[in-house]
Amino acid sequence: MPFVRIDALRADEKRLDALGRAVHDALVDAIGIPQDDRFQVLTSHDGTRGTLRYDAGYLGVHRDDDLVFVAIAMRSGRTAAQKQALYRRIAELAEEYAGTEPRNVFVSISENQPIDWSFGEGVAQYAEAGL
Description:
Distance between the termini: 11 Å
Low-confidence stretches: none
Radius of gyration: 15 Å
Mean pLDDT: 94
Number of strands: 4
């Protein structure tokens, strides 16, 4: 169960939706999450009340204001190869669905354990089910 946060500067509803679909489809394709396992927060920053800060050339990647931050929290256990495939697939689909150039797709993964999730009702469902 990945929990995804996507932040983009001055993105309209259509672009945010396309980015959300891109990340979800990449998670399904690259690491095999179930199709109906979608939990996302999509945020557009207007550049005045909320904005994004970034280095335009860090590590030789030339970014601009079309930059998208994607933060994924998920249970640990994926291999380095699976994560690299996920990064590639997110970048591919973000370009295909939302027109976001791969150089502007910044992805971060945070891993945790089954006890770290509650899907409601104050219960740690994964931990109780031994998943």
